[in-house]
Every structure is written in structure tokens, then in C-alpha cells.
């Protein structure tokens, strides 16, 4: 019984982290390049989507969320969901300001 | 029962709870920075033109360099945990030290960036800044508050990593007990995620 409280090693290997890092650097270069292009109002959307993809990579790979119990993932989703609600409600107000 | 069996039975540890506690702390950080991001979004919405003008004064090169530094430091932190899981103590120790040094490099960059801003007279409450339109004052206020608070988190993360380096040297963090290092890693990656959002919001406004 005590055994399952001490975590087991997943040993994902070093390789995957280099690929994730490469993806993160590529996305950084992309977001810096795209910033020069004028998408008008869409610019902020593009920047935030790229930032969200980068965060997803960090959360799942670097922060090991994909190896953790499902409860961890649910917690994170709920936290992000409530923050999203906060933003949506705020702007539902401000958009008509 | 042999001594070894006893050792494995009477372990006073709960690694899942340790990590869960760390995650709950990270959610409280979401509230801390979330409030600031909300404030940023409203002021950017109401002062779009001023934010655009003010952001043009930012050093995109240093901002991008710092993004790459932090992303790479996250890589070395993740690798340090894997190395420890595989029992490679020296490799893990080296990677932790490299992560710490990346944090230091980030702060040195920040020092040069802020020094340049101060030299141009864009420090809070300066005559040059207060003469600017209110939207630009708000931009710089948010910039110093949010990037500054993030910088404090980098310093806190470096302090935590310094303790992890000490724990690794003293053999408190081992191949079979590395949850402290994992929790430190979670904090460091959160600092990275916050920067992932700060970078486009303050440096790349078109």
C-alpha cells in the first residue's frame, strides 16, 4: 500500500525534450516574425494562439502533465477554464463600453 | 523482515501529494498574474494606439534573447530531472547549475534593458514619462509591474534551484527521491510560461 505513494520512474528519455525545445524556439521565431506582418486586429489573436501552443507544450512535456494522474490534468483545465470565464465576462462588459 | 524491506515499507513520503501541493501553489500564481493580465487587457483595449507607440520603444532583440534563454533553461531543468531519474547525479547537478546560470543571464539582460529605459528617462514617475499620453504611462506602469514581478519570480526560482543544487550535493535528492527537484522544476516552468505570455504582449504589439 505504501508502495504506490512513492512515484515510479517514467524515464521518458532525453530526446523528446530536445524536440520540444526545438518546437518552442521555432514558435518563438514564428511569433517574432509574424509580429512584423500586420494582421490588424488578428495580430493579438495570432500572438496569443502561439503563446497558448507553447504553454501547452511546456505543461504537457516539461511539467510532466501527460505522465501524471488524470486529476492533475483536470485541475489545470478547471483553473484555465475559470480564468477564461473571467476574461470573457470582463470583455462582455468592456466591449460595449 | 530484512533491513532493506523495512526501509521500503516505512517510507514517510507522498510524492503525489507533494506535487499536487506545488500545483495548487501554481494556481495561486495564476490568480496573482491573472489579475495583472486582466488589467493589461482592459488598458490595452482602451488605449490601443498608445500601447502600440510605447511598445515600439522596446528592445525586441533583448526580449527575444531572454525568451530563448528562459526556454533553454526550462529544457536544462527538465533534463536535470530525467538525469536524476536515471541516477546520473553529476549530469543532473551540472544541468541544475546551468539552469541557475541561465536565470542569471536572464537577469543580466533585464538589467541592461532597464538601464537603457532609465537612461531614456522612461522610469516610473520621471518628468519625460509623465509628460506622455496617459496610455503610454499605463503601458510603462504595467511593463515595470508585470515584468518586474516576473523578475522577482526568476530570483525566487534561482533561490529554489540553489537549494536543489545543495540537496543534490548532500545526497538528499537521489535517484529514488527526486520529488523536491520535480517541484522546483514545476515552479521554474511556470516562470517560463508567464514569460511566454509577457513577451508577445509587451514586445510584439503591432
Please explain how this structure is put together.
The complex is a heterodimer of chains A (97) and B (206). Chain A is mainly α. Chain A has helices at residues 15-34, 42-62, 70-94. Chain A folds into two domains: 2-66; 68-97. Chain A starts with 14 loop residues before the first helix and ends with a helix. Chain B has one domain: Four Helix Bundle (Hemerythrin (Met), subunit A), CATH 1.20.120.80. Chain B has eight helices and no strands. Chain B has helices at residues 3-9, 15-46, 48-55, 60-85, 89-119, 127-130, 134-170, 179-203. In chain B, helix 2 (15-46) packs antiparallel against helix 7 (134-170), helix 2 runs parallel beside helix 8 (179-203) and helix 3 (48-55) packs across helix 7 (134-170). The N and C termini of chain B lie far apart (69 Å). The chains are: A mainly alpha (97), B mainly alpha (206).
Compact description:
With 97 residues, chain A is mainly α.
Number of domains of chain A: 2
Q: Work out the helicity level of chain B.
A: over 70%
User: In this structure, how is the largest beta sheet of chain B organized?
Assistant: none
CATH-defined topology of chain B: Four Helix Bundle (Hemerythrin (Met), subunit A)
Dominant shape of chain B: elongated
Q: What's the CATH class of chain B, please?
A: Mainly Alpha
- Written as H for each helix and E for each strand, in order along the chain, the element string of chain B is HHHHHHHH
**Overall pLDDT score of chain A:** 86
How many E-type strands of chain A? 0
Overall domain count of chain B: 1
Helical stretch tally of chain B = 8
Structure classification of chain A: mainly alpha
Integer average pLDDT of chain B = 92
